[in-house]
Amino acid sequence: MNKLREDAVNQARPATQAVRGGYRHTAEMEHSEALFMTSSYVFDSAADAAATFSGDQEGNVYSRYTNPTVQAFEARLALLEGGEACAATSSGMAAIFSVCMAFLKSGDHLISSRSIFGSTNVVFNRYLERFGVTTTYVDPKDVSAWQAAIQPNTRLMFLETPSNPLSEVTDLEAVSAIAREANALLVVDNCFCTPALQRPLEQGADIVIHSATKFIDGQGRALGGAVVGREEQINEIVGFLRSAGPSMSPFNAWIFLKGLETLDLRMKQHCANAQALAEWLEQQPAVTKVHYLGLPSHPQHDLAKRQQSGFGGVLSFVVKGGQEAAWSVIDATRILSITANLGDTKTTITHPYTTTHGRVDEATKETAGIVPGLIRIAVGLEDVEDMKDDLARGLNALS
C-alpha cells in the first residue's frame, strides 16, 4: 500500500478500515494479505543484524515478537479501536496476563469488576496473589463502588462491558474519570462488542483487551488475543512478549485479518438475531429472566444505547427449576452447539454455573448472579426461527 492509499484508508470509515487497514503489500503486490510462515529472518551482514536486534533500525528479528502477518493484524485492530498500537497474543487470557505482568508488581492493588470471565477471576485470585498483588471486586454498575475501592497503591482497574454472561454495563466515562484521578490504568475487555459496536478508548479507557478467538475470528477456528492502547503502553507489553513468549502465530494472525474483513457485517446480524431471540424468550412461561441489553426491561438499556452502537450477540436467561431444568433445555437442542465458546457463526449454548464459571467459588458466583438456572447463548447467524424451534423443545417441556 503506497502512502496515498494508506492515508485514504486511515481516514475511511470503520467498515472500510476492517477490510483494507494496516497492510502493506510485498514486492509481489498480492491482493490478499500474505502469510509469513517463518520463525526467523536473515540479514545482509553482521552489522545489519546487530542494528536490527538493538532496535537502531527497523526490521524483523524473530517471529515471537516481529512478524509481518502479525503486525498487519495488530495495525488493523489498532486502527479500528482508535489506538496508537496493538500487541497480539496467543489467546485472550494471554492478553490479560500480559497486561498484569507489564503493569503490576508486588504490593500493588487491582480493582476488578466482580462480573468477569471465570478464568480471569482465577488469574487474579490464584496467581497475582502469589506475587503480592491484591484485588478488590466491585459491582460493575455502581460507580460509587469503584470510587470507594481506590487505595493509595491502586495501579489498575479492570472490567468487561458488557459482562459475561449477564450483560452488565459499566459507565466508562465515569469510571475512567476515577481511574485518571487515582493515576491508575483503566483496562476494558471489549470482547463482547468488538470495535464494530464499541470503542472504549474514546470513552476514557487506557487499554482495550480482546479475545480474538471470539467475534474477531467469527468462525471458531483459532486462538488469539490482543492489547490496544498508547504506543508507550504497548511497548511494555511487547517487552513482556519478547521475553516470555505468549505470542500470536502468523497463521492465526492471517485468519484474524480475514475475520476482521467481515466483522461489521457479522456483528449487525448477530445483534439482529439476538434481539429477536431475546424478545421471544421473554414470552416463554418457563423463563423467569432474560439478560439482554437490547430489551427495554434491561436496567441498563439506556446506558448501553449511549455507549454502544449495537447490543451484541450474547444473551442469557434463567429457567424455572435450577440446574436440572437448565441442563434439560440444553440437552434437548439439536441445532445449537453445546460449547462454552462464543462469537461463532454457529450459535452456542452453555451452562455458566458449571462451565465458564465452574472454577469460581460459590459465594462469588452468587454475588455475581451466576445462578444454577442460568443459560448463556452466543447467538450465531442461522435463521433465528430455527433457534427458537430448537430451544422450544426443552422449554416447552418445563412449562
Describe the protein.
With 399 residues, the protein is α/β, with parallel strands linked by helices. It has two domains: 3-261, Type I PLP-dependent aspartate aminotransferase-like (Major domain) (Aspartate Aminotransferase, domain 2); 264-398, Aspartate Aminotransferase, domain 1 (Alpha-Beta Complex), CATH 3.90.1150.10. It has 16 helices and twelve strands. The chain has helices at residues 3-10, 14-20, 46-54, 68-81, 92-103, 118-128, 143-148, 172-182, 194-197, 231-244, 250-261, 263-281, 301-307, 322-332, 362-368, 384-398, and strands spanning 85-89, 109-113, 134-138, 154-160, 185-189, 207-211, 225-229, 287-291, 314-319, 337-338, 348-350, 374-378. Strand 2, helix 6 and strand 3 (134-138) form a beta-alpha-beta unit. Helix 2 runs antiparallel to helix 11 (250-261), helix 5 packs parallel to helix 6 (118-128) and helix 12 runs parallel beside helix 16 (384-398).
- What is the strand content? 5-15%
Q: Based on helices, strands and strand pairing, what is the structural class? A: alpha/beta
Q: What's the CATH topology name of the largest domain? A: Aspartate Aminotransferase, domain 2
Q: What distance separates the N and C termini? A: 60 Å
CATH class annotation of the largest domain: Alpha Beta
* Total domains: 2
Return the CATH architecture of the largest domain: 3-Layer(aba) Sandwich
> What is the fourth-level CATH superfamily of the largest domain?
Type I PLP-dependent aspartate aminotransferase-like (Major domain)
How many E strands? 12
What is the rounded Rg?
22 Å
The percentage helix is 40-55%
- Compressed to H and E, one letter per element, the order equals HHHHEHEHEHEHEHEEHHHEHEHEEHEH
